Each structure stands twice: as C-alpha cells, then as structure tokens.
Structure to design on (84 residues):
C-alpha cells in the first residue's frame, strides 16, 4: 500500500511539473500520463487483464443492502465528516 501511495504521489508530482514548466493544459498532461501508465501496465502484465479481484469487491458496485444499492448507501457516510 505504501508503494502505491509513493507511486501515486510521484506520478502526480511529475504531471504537475510537466504542466507547470511547459504550460500545457492539465487535461492534455493527464491524458498523456494515462497513456504512458497504461503502456507500462501492459508491459508489466504482458497485456493480460488482472482478474483476481475478491468476491466482495463486486458487491460494492452491484450489491444491495435492504433493497438499496450499496453505492447509494455509501454516499451519505462519505459526506458525514465534512458536515460537522
């Protein structure tokens, strides 16, 4: 997890530096970085999709709690800390 956080901070910093130094619009730098990182992911996985998600992961997007979609039930909980 720490490795993913470091990689995320590094790529965000790199994108920000490119944007600031070359005055290229943010959308273009983000799209370029997405393309580069997608290519790196394809190199690492040899072009095969990663399909080893745990069973509960699908529940977050398509599950129901008391007839209400999980995605709708998690929204109020994510807003609670900002409404104090």
């Amino acid at each position: 997890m720490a490795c993913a956080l470091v990689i995320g901070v590094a790529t965000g910093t790199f994108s920000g530096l490119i944007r600031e130094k070359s005055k290229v619009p943010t959308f273009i730098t983000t799209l370029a970085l997405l393309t580069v990182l997608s290519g790196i992911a394809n190199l690492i996985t040899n072009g095969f999709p990663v399909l080893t998600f745990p069973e509960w992961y699908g529940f977050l997007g398509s599950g129901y709690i008391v007839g209400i979609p999980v995605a709708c039930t998690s929204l109020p909980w994510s807003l609670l800390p900002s409404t104090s």
